[in-house]
């Protein structure tokens, strides 16, 4: 491993074994956006090194994904082209989630979307502000969520402007759907904007704030409030909560589809394989996605069974 002159940095990466230098710390790869870094890659099967010049840039991972990634380097958000059913996955709620979701919905509208599946499965949550804005995309009015803390309640309501309406929706959730994703699901369910399909969510409804310790020796993250859905029910599952208590988001009656551990692992594996950006080629599903299939069935009736 050695530094080259100027902005270049040269080192060898071992591929599949061999005697190449060890992989350097990630910090040596990082640098100002727009500056080059030169990699010398040496394969185990060859003594010759391949020189690759990369230009540093800010890597932004999208939070709104479709079903497959096409050869045009864009996500395909249309699950069923004949029935015009859109499919959008919200993997987490980050700073760009609202704008990404808005762009996806606008693209689906141009394609003549007649129904939409919003997939929140395995969604770990994210920013409250983005959860409110994403939910507001589908609601014209009413409460989205209330944050209750000691001595103060903060309510967030939907507004009519910028709403995407006129089509039925199904929301997919599972036992890994948490926090901000539960805010989106519960608000759409309570306002009867969407049918919730899948299995009960995790029930993570506490607001946590970070408090710096004196002397800069660390920080503590402590719960300071709780999320309450439009119906007025708390979403959080407390340690003494029972299965019969109101927490999390339950699927609508008749739309509960619980996967066993093997099915969930297989779904995650197949989804990971399909997410490989390989020009839209997808792997055949060894185990059908029963939750997605039930969501499609939920949209069949409002779409006239077509």
Overview of the molecule:
It is a single chain. This protein is an alpha/beta fold and 306 residues long. The chain folds into two domains: 2-55, no CATH class; 64-140 and 160-201 and 231-300, 2-enoyl-CoA Hydratase, Chain A, domain 1 (Alpha-Beta Complex), CATH 3.90.226. The protein contains five helices and 17 strands. It has helices at residues 97-110, 128-136, 180-190, 261-274, 290-300; strands spanning 2-3, 9-10, 12-15, 36-43, 49-55, 64-65, 68-69, 75-76, 78-80, 85-90, 115-119, 143-149, 152-157, 169-173, 195-198, 206-212, 219-228. Strands 6, 9, 10, 11, 14 and 15 form a six-stranded mixed beta sheet that branches. β10 (85-90), α1 and β11 form a beta-alpha-beta unit. α2 (128-136) runs parallel beside α3. The chain is globular, with a radius of gyration of 23 Å. Mean pLDDT is 86; it is low at 1-21.
Quick structural gist:
Helices cover 19% and strands 27% of the residues. It has 306 residues and is α/β, with parallel strands linked by helices.
| Overall average pLDDT | 86
Percent helix range:
10-25%
Could you say which overall geometry the principal axes of the C-alpha atoms support?
globular
Structural class designation: alpha/beta
Rg over C-alpha atoms, rounded to the nearest angstrom: 23 Å
Number of domains as seen in the coordinates: 2
Task: Detail the topology: elements first, then pairings.
Elements: E1 2-3, E2 9-10, E3 12-15, E4 36-43, E5 49-55, E6 64-65, E7 68-69, E8 75-76, E9 78-80, E10 85-90, H1 97-110, E11 115-119, H2 128-136, E12 143-149, E13 152-157, E14 169-173, H3 180-190, E15 195-198, E16 206-212, E17 219-228, H4 261-274, H5 290-300
Parallel strand pairs: 3-4, 10-11, 11-14, 14-15
Antiparallel strand pairs: 1-2, 4-5, 6-10, 7-8, 9-10, 12-13, 12-17, 16-17
Helix pairs in contact: 1-2, 2-3
């Amino acid at each position: 491993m050695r530094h080259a002159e100027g902005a270049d940095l040269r080192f060898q990466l071992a591929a599949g074994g061999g005697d190449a230098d060890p992989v350097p710390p990630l910090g040596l790869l990082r640098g100002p956006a727009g500056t080059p870094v030169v990699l010398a890659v040496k394969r185990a099967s060859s003594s010759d090194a391949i020189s690759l010049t990369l230009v540093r840039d800010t890597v932004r991972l999208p939070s709104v994904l479709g079903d497959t990634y096409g050869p045009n380097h864009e996500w395909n958000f249309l699950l069923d082209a004949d029935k015009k059913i859109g499919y959008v996955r919200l993997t987490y709620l980050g700073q760009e989630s609202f704008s990404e979701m808005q762009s996806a919905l606008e693209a689906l509208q141009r394609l003549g979307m007649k129904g939409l599946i919003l997939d929140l499965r395995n969604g770990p949550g994210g920013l409250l502000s983005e959860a409110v804005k994403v939910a507001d995309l589908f609601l014209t009015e009413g409460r989205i969520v209330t944050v209750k803390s000691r001595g103060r309640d903060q309510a967030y309501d939907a507004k009519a402007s910028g709403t995407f309406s006129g089509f039925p929706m199904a929301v997919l959730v599972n036992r890994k759907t948490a926090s901000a994703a539960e805010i989106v699901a519960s608000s759409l369910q309570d306002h009867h904007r969407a049918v919730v399909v899948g299995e009960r969510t995790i029930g993570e409804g506490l607001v946590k704030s970070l408090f710096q310790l004196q002397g800069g020796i660390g920080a503590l993250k402590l719960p300071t409030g709780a999320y309450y859905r439009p119906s007025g029910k708390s979403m959080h599952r407390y340690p003494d909560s029972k299965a019969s208590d109101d927490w999390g988001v339950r699927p609508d009656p008749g739309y509960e589809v619980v996967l066993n551990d093997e099915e969930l692992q297989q779904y995650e594996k197949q989804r990971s394989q399909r997410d490989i950006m390989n020009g839209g080629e997808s792997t055949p599903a060894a185990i059908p996605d029963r939750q997605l299939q039930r969501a499609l069935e939920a949209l069949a009736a409002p779409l006239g069974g077509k």
